Amino acid sequence: MELGAGFAYMGKQVPIRVGERDFFLDLLFYHTRLHCHVIIELKITDFEPEHAGKLNFYIKAVDEQLRQPGDEPTIGILLCKNKDSLVAEYALSDINKPIGVSEYQLTQSLPDSLKSNLPSIEEIEAELFSDLNK
Questions:
Q1: pLDDT of amino acid 109
Q2: Could you say which DSSP state residue 93 is in?
């Protein structure tokens, strides 16, 4: 998994225990140049203010449990289907931890560089139907 220079992938659905409960970080990275953990939370819905609170909680838990001497504070990135900038601004206005909110976009077509390496939908369907007819 490549996110850019300096990112070291630590895992997906990384468990972290707080009190008597287990929580799961969607994606956890360590940035080797910034010397900090980076949590990425993925939401398939529009941004909601409670998402910021949950990410703030995760940042605090990682800072308390995983951060080592010499590490900088953990950074949180929240990727949502859509965001209302004013709602995000209000939700983050009194949070003092580094959190960013961004939208993602899904595409219906593959980049040309991948098309030659993957089967087409028609080829997959033909394979599935041939297996059903055996």
A1: 61
A2: T
